[in-house]
Design a protein that fits this description.
This protein is an alpha+beta fold and about 550 residues long. Helix content is about 45%, strand content about 20%. A hairpin with a 2-residue loop joins strand 4 and strand 5. Helix 1 runs antiparallel to helix 3. The chain is rod-shaped and about 180 Å long.
């Protein structure tokens, strides 16, 4: 039989828009940019602060040097009673001005940072009290945008935007007072230093940071791409393997290319593929088995009687419920001759296909041996001799075989190790067991079976009922593990004996289902019953 294969699926569309390696490269580059810019900003601030501190230190040192070097007598005017006249003091001071002007001009000329050094009578009125000015030739410096950086009693620092000779730059002014006991006013020294180095340092660091960031980003992208390629290469291989398996190639083998998590995933996927192949083979085998079981079920159903015999003065019914697709129970109605009807109920030791095959063999042998043979014992002896030769060890069949003679209202019964018949006697209202001696078919090839098998004859009276069943009825379990039991079955038969056979069987099945409380059926259930109808007057009074 050709197995039904699963529908081949089309490959799933490629939904990858951004490869994982590219994502990793972008992420690494972004981290490098943030890290580089952050480190650059930190170093830039440190460097700018260092330059700023150096300018402040240099400017203060120059101003203090000038303030302490100059002769303080120039700010002490002579008194009326003094030895030096005012004219002499002015002449001496003018000479000092020329000396300091020349000296400070030379100092400014030697420095790239000093823009001007001024000695003034009043630090608060710089332009009106200038004594010595140096630097920038004869051009004036125009100051604007004053900003106080430091204000103290010993010195002060201010910053301006300075314009001179058409050039604008930042100027930092350092004022140091000239102090003495007899000094009048607020003389002091002012030093003007260029603060443009701060801007130059910032620009230089900004340029360095920019180039460093660009180099770091390029290097980061290249390096991260190489790293990502090394990481994602096994992953891409695994994706190709998964694609091959998803198309149904369960023979595809996935190799482990690394000792990391991806390698472990590849090994796990390969194991999963092997297990999936085994599972698919099992599923195919299961579908084949299910198909064969369906065929066996159809065959077994076809072997059961297609209709219940209609005999004048009798009404009968039978029902079979398999615990699996194919069961081991069997019942049959066999027309032996024009005056006798054979009724058999059997149970094979085993279920499924083996039990079904044995049941089929037993059915054929019973039908053949019962032909024109009204003796149930002789029929079962012939069946046992033929069946026991082909029975596998441990297999056997229990059967109760009845031959009904409706003319005489008698039943001849033989029992090959089966459950006893139940005989309801309408006259007494009691249920009796009919259980002649016998062992199961297939246990023995002849002598023991033949010697132990008995045959008895039961006389039926109007209203009497016979019930044959398999052990699936009395052994039906509920959730507590309790069996339905023979006592409960006998009570049910006694209470329902006057109902028609079909209703009795259906009510018995309902009682079994109620007892089971949803518990799964563990064994096949077969029930066959017939009743000799009572007189019409008796039927009416019993109803």
């Amino acid at each position: 039989m050709k197995a039904v294969e699963g529908r081949k699926r089309e490959p799933p569309p490629d939904q990858i828009t951004v490869p994982l390696g590219l994502k990793f490269s972008f992420f690494t580059a972004a981290l490098l940019i943030v890290f580089t810019v952050t480190i650059g900003q930190v170093f830039s601030r440190v460097a700018v602060a260092s330059i700023d501190e150096r300018i402040n230190s240099e400017g203060r040192q120059i101003a203090e040097t000038v303030a302490t070097t100059i002769d303080r007598v120039f700010w002490v005017r002579p008194s009326k009673d003094g030895e030096v006249s005012n004219e002499t003091w002015k002449a001496t001071r003018a000479e000092a001005e020329r000396f300091w002007n020349s000296s400070l001009e030379a100092l400014v000329a030697k420095s790239d940072d000093i823009r001007r050094i001024i000695i003034v009578d009043d630090l608060d009125a710089l332009d009106q009290n200038e004594i010595v000015s140096s630097g920038l030739g004869d051009e004036d410096i125009h100051l604007s945008d004053e900003r106080v950086i430091y204000e103290g009693s010993d010195y002060r620092v201010r910053e301006y935007g300075a314009t001179s000779a058409g050039r604008t730059e930042r100027i930092r002014r350092f004022d140091v007072p000239i102090q003495g006991d007899r000094i009048q006013g607020k003389p002091g020294a002012s030093v003007f230093l260029s603060a443009s180095k701060i801007d130059e340092a910032k620009a230089a660091f900004s340029s360095r940071i920019t180039w460093t960031t660009i180099i770091a980003v390029v290097a980061g992208i290249v390096l991260s791409f190489l790293i990502a390629r090394g990481i994602t290469s096994p992953l891409r291989t695994l994706m190709r393997d998964i694609g091959a398996v998803s198309q149904g190639d369960l023979d595809h083998h996935t190799e482990r290319h690394s000792r990391d998590e991806i390698g472990s995933l590849a090994e796990t996927f390969d194991t999963m593929t092997v297990n999936l192949k085994v599972a698919r083979e099992k599923a195919l085998a299961q579908r084949i088995l299910e198909h064969e079981l369906d065929i066996a079920t159809e065959i077994q159903t076809a072997l059961l009687p297609g209709r219940i015999p209609q005999i004048e003065g009798y009404e009968m019914f039978a029902h079979y419920i398999s615990a699996r697709e194919v069961g081991g129970d069997y019942y049959d109605f066999i027309k032996i001759d024009s005056n006798h009807l054979g009724i058999v109920v059997a149970d094979v030791a085993g279920k499924g296909i083996p039990g079904s095959m044995v049941m089929t063999m037993a059915r054929s042998l019973i039908r053949f041996a019962s032909l024109r043979n009204p003796s149930p014992a002789d029929t079962l002896r012939k069946v046992n001799r033929a069946l026991s030769r082909d029975m596998r060890r441990g297999m056997f069949v229990t059967a109760v075989y009845m031959v009904l003679d409706p003319r005489e209202n008698i039943v001849r019964v033989s029992n090959a190790g089966h459950n006893p018949l139940l005989h309801y006697r309408a006259r007494s209202g009691k249920v009796e067991e009919i259980n002649p001696r016998g062992i199961a078919l297939g246990f023995d090839k002849g002598p023991v079976f033949d010697s132990t098998l008995d045959e008895i004859t039961v006389k039926l009276e109007p209203g009497d009922r016979i019930v044959a069943y398999t052990d699936g009825v009395v052994e039906a379990l509920n959730a507590k593990g309790e069996e339905f039991g023979e006592e409960r079955l006998e009570r049910f038969v006694r209470e329902s004996a006057h109902a028609d056979s079909k209703r009795l069987v259906h009510n018995l099945i309902a009682a079994l289902e109620k007892h089971q409380e949803g518990t799964e059926q563990s064994d096949d259930i077969t029930i066959t019953t017939f009743r000799l109808k009572a007189d019409t007057s008796q039927e009416s009074s019993q109803a």
